[in-house]
Amino acid sequence: MTVLPHAPPAPRHAPAAFLRPGQRLAILSALVDEQRGLIDQLQERQRIEHAGRHFWLGRFQGVPVVLTVSRIGKVSASLTAATLIERFAVGAIVFTGVAGALGDGVQVGDVVVAQDFIQHDLDVSPLFARYEVPAYGRARFACDAGLSQALLQAVQHSLAHDFAPARVHQGLIASGDRFVSGQAEVRALRERLQQDGHPALAVEMEGAAVAQVCADHGLPYAAMRTISDRADDSAHRDFAQFVEQVASRYAQAIITRLLDSLGQGPRP
C-alpha cells in the first residue's frame, strides 16, 4: 500500500497529452449521486440519450467532456465504456466513485487512486491461473501513468485544502460483481488476494471492466475511489448516505481541480 503525502501545487497538464483534436474526456461514475454537481458546471451543455443511458456533453474548465453513469457491475460498466469510445469520440476516461476499504490503514473518507485493477471474482482455473483474464496472459490491467499522476495531484490538492485530514493512497483496486459487506467475507477476500500476490487497497464493482476495455482500445484510463465503508457488516447502512453527503463533494472538488489543470493547456 502506498500512502502519499499532500503535494505542492500541481503543474499544468495540457489536454493534448491525453486527447487528440476532436476527442473528449469522459468522466464516468457508477451512480447518479456520484456526479452530483458536475453536470451543473458544464458549459455548452447537451444531453443525448443512447443505449438506455444519458450522456452529457459540454466543456468543463475549458476541456471538452462527456459525463455519464456506468451503472453498477462489470457488464454495465464495460458496455458504457465501449459506447463512450465508439459513439462519443472519447480519447481518455476518468472514473470517480466509491469503494470499500481492503488495505491496512485505508479509512473511511480516504481516497484511493488506482495504479491497476484486478477482477477478484474471476477464476478459470485449472485452465488459467486464478484472476488471469483468458487470452490476455495477465490478471491486472494498469492505469495510464500520466493521467493517473494528474488525477493523483488533483486529489492531493483537494484533500489538503478542502477535506483534511483525509489521506490519499495509490495502488491496486479489486473489482467484482458482488457488494462485499461482511467482516468474514472481506477478511477472506483480503487474505486470498494477498496470498496470491495481489494486495488490494479497495474493492468495488466496475473499475477492472473499464480498465480492460480501455486496454483493448489503447485509451488512457485513470480512476479514483473515495472510501465509503470498511466493506464490513455495516457497509450497506453507510453506503447510500455517504455517496449523497460526502462522495459527491469529493468528486466535484477533485474533478474540478483535475480539469482546471488540464484546461490551461492548448485546446484540442
What do you see in this structure?
By secondary structure, the protein is an alpha/beta fold. It has one domain (23-261): 3-Layer(aba) Sandwich (Rossmann fold), CATH 3.40.50. The protein has helices spanning 74-87, 145-162, 183-195, 207-217, 235-262; strands at residues 2-4, 24-29, 43-50, 53-60, 63-69, 90-101, 111-119, 140-142, 168-175, 202-204, 221-229. A hairpin with a 2-residue loop joins strand 3 (43-50) and strand 4. The longest helix has 28 residues, at 235-262. Residues 6-12 have low confidence and may be disordered.
Largest beta-sheet characterization? 5 strands, mixed, barrel
> Regions with pLDDT < 50 over 5+ consecutive residues?
6-12
Report mean pLDDT, rounded to a whole number. 87
Number of helices: 5
Q: What would you call the structural class?
A: alpha/beta
Number of separate strands: 11
Helix content percent band: 25-40%
CATH architecture: 3-Layer(aba) Sandwich
Distance between the termini: 36 Å
Number of domains: 1
Q: Per the principal axes of the C-alpha atoms, what is the gross shape? A: globular
According to CATH, what is the topology?
Rossmann fold
CATH homologous superfamily label? Nucleoside phosphorylase domain
Order of helices and strands: EEEEEHEEEHEHEHEH
The CATH class assignment is: Alpha Beta
Specify Rg, calculated over alpha carbons.
17 Å
- How large is the share of residues in beta strands? 25-35%
How are the strands of the largest sheet arranged? 6-10-9-7-11
